[in-house]
Amino acid sequence: MDDLIAELAGVLGEANVLVSEQDQAPFITDWLGKYRGAARAVVRPGSTADVAAVMRICARHKAPVVPQGGNTSMSGGATPDASGQAIILSLTRLNSIRNIDAVGNTITVDAGVVLAKVQQAAGAAGRFFPLSLGAEGSCTIGGNLAANAGGVAVLRYGTMRELTLGLEVVLADGRVWDGLTALRKDNTGYALRDLFIGSEGTLGVITGAVLKLFARPHARASAFVAVRDAAAALALLATVRDRCGDRLTAFEFMTGECLALILRHIGDARLPLAATPPAAVLIELSDQDDEPELRERLEAALAEGIEAGLVLDAAIAQDGTQAKAFWRIREGVSEALVREGKAAKHDVSMPVSAMAEFVAVADAAVRRVAPGVRPIVFGHLGDGNLHYNLLPAEGQDPAAFAAIAPELTRIVHDEIGRRRGSISAEHGIGQLRVDEMPLRKAPLELELMHQLKHLLDPAGLLNPGKLMPAATKN
Predict the structure, then answer these.
(1) What is the pLDDT of residues 232-285, one digit of tens each?
(2) ∠ at Cα 403 (397, 404), nearest 5°?
(3) Domain FAD-binding PCMH-type: where (predicted)?
């Protein structure tokens, strides 16, 4: 046992310092199976003090540290490189609900708490935590914060940055910043909290958070609506917003090609329309009470959409079972994509008003380079976030498609750049997009990011090779 491992075992106990290949296996491969690395050890601290001790030891030994929560990153952000030098810092033992304040509408949690547990704890206190993700049964709050997760309810409640009041963070040298404040107003300096949220573990290790809670919605109204294209969907979005205000919780868009893929691969998905439309939106309203009134608002908005020629067909859920069936269609997209085969995936955002034009232009551009390519487009239309995925032409050799995938990604991201959008809306940069950062960020912006990284992590030990590799080369 080398000195580093011995010191870590002395603090955490040998049972929480995993060195065998078998014990490390669940931690060194990402959940999509795209990235595989190697680690010197996987450590499992049980408290913030443990995390601080680990960081001090690793700083002394100049050992890289890869923070990891539920290991559900979509961009390889929690997987080490292949050098075998990194310490994986698994936070899953930090899994306590520290406090719930039903009057102040806050919940204070450890970073390793699984998202579903936070939702359940809020519900037991008569409150509501709105972040909802497909991986909510396994992703952790620390990971949600590190990637600034969004999900389907961003339209009403915002991303994790908007849902967070305070943080506790262990720095690269082992010092602990206690910013676990529940204040909603504090104008006493820089917003350090916002600096760590979305930093993908490259500036510090988040160990705790104070999150916002909300009144629990008891009334919901959902509709599955056929539209002709993204332009009609955007016009309908404006109509629903005018009619329903902040009751609008979700407005999810799917193209007809996307719906066909779901129906092909997801056995329990049932389209509540007479035929597969050119495109569709899933609309959800929520409020504290009066479900009949909420449904009437939605019906009135859809009637206005029909009159304006925006709505081709619509089904309104009559109960929770039907609403759940609508959401099963939307939730089946990722699973259907995996079953269909390898896709070139893009998680992009742009001004909402630019989305319809982007889809039309990007579709045409990729088809010029790759005739027969199949765009599978879905996402959170109301907040400007699309998942623009490209499947190979029917019968195309996977290797041939993989060879042109980088060119297709460049085309898609160039179109995003022309609209002053982002190449990562909610999945993070991780390893997947790190080489593109110099192409997509202004030199001054990269310089400032580099300076912040050097200030907080001068040795470049925190999650090296993620987000911006130049920041680790000092």
Answers:
(1) 999 999 999 999 999 999 999 999 999 999 999 999 999 999 999 999 999 999
(2) 100
(3) 35-216
